[in-house]
């Protein structure tokens, strides 16, 4: 191989001695490299006085800008009022803009000050091992044992044991106090406010629904129980989606005698973690939960066809009252919403119960 | 200044007379702080926290943490007369009827995002440079705890305005809590004061968000700072830097001024974001009702990985003996978080066990020089990143015209393949970079100077690298390996006997083997590769004697 590693003496001056793109040693990122004049302390390189004077002008300008922007901030507070979307936008822009400029100018000023008017430091300090020396450790160890002996904690067994005994119930006390944070679940998760004869009303308007009016196949409504339009606890379990089908579209998963004239009611609360399954695709009859994209087939008992939900959306038995308004026939026969430990296979139990009835 | 000004000198003596602060200052005023851009990442988190305390206090002056129903009578026209909780109404009030309220609210939200983001990149810096090693393991644990608490702080915070978006987050929180085996329903009922949503959760979250969690955060951050101060900062390898010293700028005045400027920069960034980048426009979402949701609901970015995990999971649920185990919620809610947080917490101790390295480390590793650690880290980042991306799979599907279900199915494979591929690629990159370092040290850098030799051959002159760069490269440390070879009688050394010991010896060899050793002082070793790459133009190799 050729000896191409060593530059000749005249090469020294003109060959770069570093990887391209890396800063030279001691290069300041802002400004030029300070001329190394008198060095007072080792590791402290004083800045070039001429450059420092130039930098002072920059810093002064920046601090003055910060001052003006600060004044402008206070003025903006007085001048621009809030009270509507547009006025708030103007006030926000004025307050925020002046604050940003003030802080930015102040920060930049300090940076120029540090980088060009303060010395460059390369100070060295010794580290010491974190560990204490053996003498210290020995002393602490001895003192600890002596103190333990003096206190009698080791010797007097009865005292030690009763002290631990005394601490135990007091340690539990805070936990006991938390019990009244809430009632016990009981069977509340298994029921909703729906019951026989309760009217279905449209969410938002509160209008009851005439079955004859809800007659375009593919139509969908978000429905809540009458009288509970603003009861969030009730709505969190009882909200429904109501879909109108041609009766021949319905498949075996849907319980036919719980529908009315092709109108099916499913719980809107997703069986995954409880978001409202609010999206409906008319052509495929898919109900989609926007949170985690569990997808249910509305024609087939809302069975899961994709996503993390493990169970179909429960179906609510519906019918009409004397005037033709849609009403519930009963509550759901399985718990709605997300799964929980005590839930069990409620669907199997419900199927069995329905089998016994018929 | 020839003399300290009277007011300062007077105050100082007054305080020193009573506190004895002088000896502390004597030791610490010129405390040396090493410099590296990556050391600034944690400071972003620290300053964001300070800004969070300031802006958050402002918001509490008007916010009403109540779920009581009121009819909105404020100035925002589209919602006039709408029934909503007091929490939501007061958030609208802060936004539209308090001067600077909108700005501070948006700054608070942006600062929260920057707080968590700052912690994450800081944690990555500490991880990839091995700065968590002895004696800093405890501070690393405090950091992991801080990150976990920050997630809880974020969750309790964005639930407070009680708008439709925050309610969706709360609903998912409830769905996750209630899925826990045995205790799930009880925890949910205790948290919400009964059935979801109840009337208590906002005021309870408020207490957690403004008192309990920030209090713990403040205490832990202080401990984090004190430990950093006492143990002194790590430094990158370079000229004059050893395991036994710190090289850098003194606390007073340089570091202090720099830190102050950096705080102001962070503040300015957050103010700029709060001014010009709208965030969480709650007035567009409307008040919360469990019956509605808007499509494309996204949590704040730091919750995205949990959202992605929930979306990714197949519909697994087990029913047995009348009980239900909703794995499709439990696994994504607990496993990724568990893997990442537990993994982070245990890593320093696992590494110590594998390498048997109980020494103190104050010189940071360059990530390439610990290739297995770096690759594990990148695999974890990929794991997290894929979950995070899938948390927005509906947006990806819309914007990139990929089928929604396809994104999920691809994700189900990617979550296993991605980290493995990332591990392999990172490992190769590390080895490649090590070879390049070795090459620079043994052959120097290309000077760009072409020289014609007397016999007509053209060569490019290589020169030794600059001293600071060479020192930086030479900072590479051998990773210790637990001795695992059997002695002449076929008996393995103590500590690596038995199945666990054998595993340890194997892991140690894998973890510590240096595939690209730097030779002593970095001179050509005659067998380093890369010779062929030299820009020798001309007659090729000639016997040396001809010169």
List the domain count of chain A as a whole number: 2
CATH architect. name of the domain at 30-285 and 293-301 in chain B: Up-down Bundle
DSSP E strands of chain B, number: 8
Spell out the helices and strands of chain B N to C: HHEHEEHHHHHHEHHHEEHHHHEEHH
How far apart the termini of chain A lie comes to: 97 Å
Subcellular location (chain B): Cell membrane
Organism (chain B): Herbidospora galbida
EC number (chain B): 7.1.1.8
Region (Disordered) (chain B): 480-500, 514-547
Please name the defining characteristics of this protein.
heterodimer, A: 358 residues, alpha+beta, Rieske Iron-sulfur Protein, five-stranded antiparallel beta sheet, 14 strands, flat, B: 547 residues, Cytochrome Bc1 Complex, Chain C, two-stranded antiparallel sheet, 18 helices
Task: Briefly say what this structure is.
Chain A is of the alpha+beta class.
Would you write up a description of this structure?
- The complex is a heterodimer of chains A (358) and B (547).
- Chain A is 34% helix and 13% strand.
- Chain A contains six helices and 14 strands.
- A five-stranded antiparallel sheet of chain A has the order 4-5-6-7-12. A four-stranded antiparallel sheet of chain A has the order 8-9-10-11, with no helix packed on it.
- Chain A starts with 43 loop residues before the first strand and ends with a helix.
- Among the domains of chain B are: 265 residues, Cytochrome Bc1 Complex, Chain C; 68 residues, no CATH class.
- With 547 residues, chain B is mainly α.
- At the A-B interface, helix 2, strand 3 and helix 5 of A face helix 4, helix 5, helix 7, helix 8 and strand 4 of B.
- Chain A: One of its GO terms (molecular function) is metal ion binding.
- Chain A: This is Cytochrome bc1 complex Rieske iron-sulfur subunit.
- Chain A: It comes from Herbidospora galbida.
């Amino acid at each position: 191989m050729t000896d191409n590693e060593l530059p000749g003496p005249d090469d020294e001056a003109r060959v770069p001695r570093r990887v391209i793109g890396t800063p030279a040693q001691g290069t300041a990122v802002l400004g030029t490299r300070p001329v190394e004049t008198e060095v007072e302390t080792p590791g402290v390189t004083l800045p070039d006085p001429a450059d420092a004077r130039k930098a002072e002008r920059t810093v002064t300008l920046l601090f003055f800008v910060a001052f003006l922007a600060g004044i402008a901030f206070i003025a903006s507070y007085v001048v621009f009022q809030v009270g509507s979307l547009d006025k708030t936008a103007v006030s926000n822009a004025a307050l925020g803009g002046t604050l940003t400029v003030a802080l930015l100018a102040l920060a930049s000023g300090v940076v120029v000050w540090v980088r060009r008017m303060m010395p460059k430091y390369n100070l060295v300090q010794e580290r010491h091992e974190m560990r204490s020396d053996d003498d210290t450790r020995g002393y602490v160890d001895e003192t600890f044992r002596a103190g333990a002996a003096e206190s009698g904690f080791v010797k007097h067994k009865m005292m030690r044991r009763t002290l631990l005994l005394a601490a135990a119930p007091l340690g539990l006390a805070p936990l006991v106090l938390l019990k009244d944070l809430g009632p016990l679940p009981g069977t509340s998760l298994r029921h909703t406010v729906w019951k026989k004869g309760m009217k279905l009303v449209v969410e938002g308007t509160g209008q009851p629904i005439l079955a004859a009016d809800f007659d375009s196949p593919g139509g969908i409504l978000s429905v809540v129980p009458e009288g509970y339009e603003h009861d969030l606890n009730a709505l969190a379990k009882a909200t429904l989606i109501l879909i109108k089908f041609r009766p021949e579209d319905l498949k075996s998963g849907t319980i036919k005698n719980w529908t009315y004239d092709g109108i099916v009611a499913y719980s809107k609360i997703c069986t995954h973690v409880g978001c409202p399954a609010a999206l409906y695709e008319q052509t495929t009859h898919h109900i989609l939960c926007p949170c985690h994209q569990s997808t249910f087939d509305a024609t087939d008992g809302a069975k899961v066809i994709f996503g993390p939900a493990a169970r179909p959306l429960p179906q609510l038995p519906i019918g009409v009252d004397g005037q033709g308004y849609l009403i519930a026939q009963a509550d759901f026969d399985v718990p709605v919403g997300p799964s929980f430990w005590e839930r069990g296979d409620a669907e199997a139990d419900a199927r069995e119960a329905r089998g016994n009835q018929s | 200044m020839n003399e300290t000004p009277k007011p300062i000198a007077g105050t100082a003596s007054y305080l020193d007379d009573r506190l004895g602060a002088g000896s502390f200052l004597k030791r610490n005023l010129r405390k040396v702080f090493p410099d590296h851009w990556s050391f600034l990442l944690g400071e972003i988190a620290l300053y964001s926290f300070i800004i969070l305390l300031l802006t958050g206090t402002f918001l509490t002056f008007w916010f009403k943490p109540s779920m009581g129903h009121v009819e909105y009578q404020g100035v925002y026209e589209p919602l006039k007369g709408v029934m909503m909780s007091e929490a939501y109404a007061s958030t609208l009030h802060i936004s539209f009827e308090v001067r600077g309220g909108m700005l501070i609210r948006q700054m608070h939200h942006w600062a929260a995002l920057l707080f968590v983001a700052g912690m994450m990149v800081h944690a990555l810096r500490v991880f990839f440079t091995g700065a968590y090693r002895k004696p800093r393991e405890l501070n690393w644990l405090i950091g992991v705890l801080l990150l976990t608490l920050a997630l809880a702080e974020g969750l309790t915070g964005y639930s407070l305005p009680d708008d439709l978006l925050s309610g969706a987050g709360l609903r998912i929180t409830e769905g996750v809590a209630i899925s826990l085996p045995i205790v799930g329903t009880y925890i949910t009922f205790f948290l919400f004061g009964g059935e979801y949503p109840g009337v208590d959760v906002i005021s309870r979250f408020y207490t957690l968000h403004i008192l309990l969690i920030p209090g713990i955060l403040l205490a832990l951050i202080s401990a984090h700072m004190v430990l950093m101060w006492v143990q002194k900062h790590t430094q990158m390898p370079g000229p004059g830097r050893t395991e036994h010293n710190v090289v850098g700028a003194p606390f007073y005045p340089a570091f202090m001024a720099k830190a102050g400027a950096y705080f102001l920069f962070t503040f300015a960034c957050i103010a700029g974001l709060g001014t010009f980048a709208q965030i969480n426009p709650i007035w567009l979402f409307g008040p919360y009702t469990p019956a509605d949701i808007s499509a494309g609901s996204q949590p704040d970015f730091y919750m995205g990985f949990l959202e992605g995990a929930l979306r990714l999971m197949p519909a697994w649920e087990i029913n047995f003996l009348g009980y239900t185990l909703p794995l499709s919620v439990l696994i994504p809610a607990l496993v990724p978080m568990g893997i990442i947080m537990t993994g982070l917490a245990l890593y320093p101790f696992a590494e110590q066990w594998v390498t048997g390295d109980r020494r103190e480390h104050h010189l940071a590793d360059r990530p390439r020089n610990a290739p297995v650690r770096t690759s594990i880290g990148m695999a974890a980042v990929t794991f997290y990143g894929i979950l995070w991306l899938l948390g927005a799979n509906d947006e990806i599907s819309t914007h990139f015209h990929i089928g929604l279900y396809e994104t999920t199915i691809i994700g189900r494979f990617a979550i296993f393949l991605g980290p493995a591929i990332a591990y392999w690629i990172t490992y190769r990159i590390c080895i490649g970079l090590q070879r390049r370092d070795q090459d620079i040290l043994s052959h120097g850098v290309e000077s760009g100077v072409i020289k014609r030799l007397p016999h007509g051959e053209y060569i490019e002159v290589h020169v030794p690298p600059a001293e600071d760069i060479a020192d930086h490269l030479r900072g590479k440390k051998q990773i210790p390996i637990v001795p695992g070879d059997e002695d002449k009688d076929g008996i393995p050394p103590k500590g690596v006997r038995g199945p666990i010991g054998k595993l340890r010896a194997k892991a140690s060899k894998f973890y510590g083997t240096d595939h690209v050793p730097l030779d002593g002082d970095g001179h050509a070793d005659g067998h380093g590769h890369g010779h062929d790459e030299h820009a020798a133009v001309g007659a090729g190799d000639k016997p040396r004697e001809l010169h």
